[in-house]
Specification:
This protein has 5 helices and 25 strands. It is mainly beta. A 7-stranded antiparallel beta sheet has the order 2-15-24-17-18-19-20. It has a 6-stranded antiparallel beta sheet with strand order 1-25-16-21-22-23. It has a 5-stranded antiparallel beta sheet with strand order 4-7-12-9-10, with no helix packed on it. The chain starts with a helix and ends with a helix.
């Protein structure tokens, strides 16, 4: 085949032919977040990184599958205060508070001197069959080795010997508790009279360390991140006059308001296009509001069950709204205004509700797709 023929054929192939969802819609979207398929937060249409994160507490993380992971709890108390009584000593250990600058730039790192057969630890109750990860930031004045470990009442420690240097490093060790376990201790020990600087201890359920959560007198849980697209990153793909939003997700548990996505003005229900699952007869609904007045609630009749996967498409235009789930009948409304909005919230709403589940894909076309197209793109 000649190069000219190849070039001519390329010109005749529409842009939507490259993706199954785009082909079913027969239209190229202006935004396509392929969390599961692409394992990325980048827009598959432009390659741009549009998603930003805010939170009410210290940060969280995105898993390797591209799914935003929510709250984790730090079980260690006084995570930056190793001179407190909750941190117990054995041997001839000595310690001092607020000796050097910590990794966060504050003078809050403590020193602990560990001769042979000495150590520092914190204990608490636990149960069998739990995977725990202990992590801590360590540095010293010269390169030295030290042990970090998780032990239990069965005296079955999981130990890691690490090398601390003059630079802060975060070290971790993971253990799954055995039958008969009732308590654990997170511990540092077996020095050679060396002084180590410590900061940011964390013990959490799970097989790897997540971002640090500071604690004082009680265990602390981080707030989930709020993922959103705002400002010029939002206006670059969104049409204020009409559009179609597609969402594919799994809801792990049916709750009163489980938001998959909200296109809104940033707070409450005012000026919003929302997806959510509801209690009673669980189902997927779309919702549009202007000045807190509901204008559209098409509700596909079939119920949602916890753990089930589904796909939903919602189209809007002045006095012309429609929605379909899993290729089912299209619910419509021929009355309603289109709200002026400025944000896409992912897995949450402006009023603070969070999704209990995972989102596989969010896609937006800046046109109101036809009703039969809504069915076609949501077919299981």
């Amino acid at each position: 085949m000649s190069r000219l023929l190849v070039a001519q054929r390329a010109l005749t192939v529409p842009g939507w032919a490259k993706d199954d969802l785009w082909r079913n819609a027969r239209a190229v979207p202006s935004l396509d977040l392929q969390f599961a398929g692409g394992k990325s937060l980048a827009d598959a249409v432009t390659g741009a990184s549009l998603v930003t994160f805010t939170r009410a507490s210290t940060g969280t993380f995105v898993g390797s599958d591209g799914v935003l992971r929510s709250a984790v709890t730090n079980l260690v108390l006084r995570s930056e205060e190793f001179t407190e009584a909750i941190w117990q000593l054995f041997g001839t250990t000595s310690r001092s508070a607020n000796v050097v600058t910590a990794p966060n730039g504050t003078l809050t790192a403590d020193s602990v001197t560990l001769p042979i057969s000495s150590g520092i630890f914190q204990s608490a109750a636990t149960t069998a069959g739990i995977t725990l990860t202990f992590s801590i930031y360590i540095r010293c004045d010269t390169t030295q080795t030290v042990r970090i470990l998780i032990n239990t009442n069965l005296s079955d420690p999981t130990v890691k010997t690490v090398t601390a240097t003059t630079a802060w490093q975060r070290f971790d060790v993971t253990k799954t508790t055995s039958v008969g376990t009732t308590s654990y201790s997170a511990q540092l020990d077996t020095g050679n009279g060396n002084t180590f600087y410590l900061w940011g201890a964390q013990l959490e359920a799970g097989a790897f360390p997540t971002s640090y959560i500071p604690t004082t007198t009680a265990a602390a849980t981080r707030s989930a991140d709020v993922a959103s697209i705002t400002g010029s990153a939002f206006s670059s793909w969104y049409s204020q006059s009409e559009g179609t939003m597609f969402g594919a997700a799994t809801i792990n548990g049916i709750a009163a308001q489980n938001y998959i996505a909200a296109i809104d003005a940033g707070a409450g229900f005012a000026d919003s296009h929302l997806y959510y699952a509801v209690t009673g007869t669980p189902r997927f609904e779309t919702f549009v509001a202007s000045a807190n007045q509901s204008q559209l609630i098409p509700a596909p009749a079939t119920a949602l069950t916890a753990g089930s996967q589904f796909a939903m498409a919602y189209a809007f235009k002045q006095n012309d709204f429609a929605a379909s789930r899993n290729g089912g009948s299209v619910a419509t409304d021929v009355f309603g205004n289109v709200s002026t909005v400025n944000r896409l919230a992912i897995g949450s709403s402006g009023s603070g509700f969070q999704l209990n589940g995972t989102i596989r894909r969010l896609t937006y076309w800046p046109v109101r797709l036809a009703n039969n197209t809504l069915q076609a793109i949501t077919q299981p």
